[in-house]
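Lab notes, practical 5.
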Amino acid sequence: MKSKTISVLFLSIALFFSITLILVSFGLSKPKPNPNSNPELIIFEGDLEGNQEVVGCCPNAGPFPEYNMTLSEKAFETAIPKEMTEKPLDGNIFMNVFLDLSEHDRGKRKAMYLVQFWWTEGDTEYFIEIRGGDIESNKKTKILTVTFVDVPCKIWINDLPKEPVTVSFNLTRKL
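Output from the prediction step:
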């Protein structure tokens, strides 16, 4: 009888401490920071112009943050209506590094950059895409700079491809 009482007492104390430990660990644990909540300054200078702080740019599966961009009249004069090059366009942006696999057979892979921007004007949807650039990344200062010089910019209007134009601009991303 005495051994049953000691066993029940021992199990009760162990259960009490286990439950207390679980409750305390939930109360003291810090919430994990959201990696997409850090604001980032994205600056375009040249044929694409923009300077805006965004949150959540740009993991592969989104989100695709809102961004205001102005397109150069000189570069886009044959592809985009003139009234759209005279004002900032409210759209969405995506950008990321990718590997050029065309050099894969030779054992080399060149890192390039992808920039996509799309917006809607009335019932018309516009989409531009630029691939290329020379990437400079400073991990200490957390600044990425990509220089695009005379690279093709593909354009789609209502999902129909248009003749590409050539653009030059600098992209800077600051965390």
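Observations recorded by the TA: The longest helix spans residues 2-28. The radius of gyration is 26 Å.
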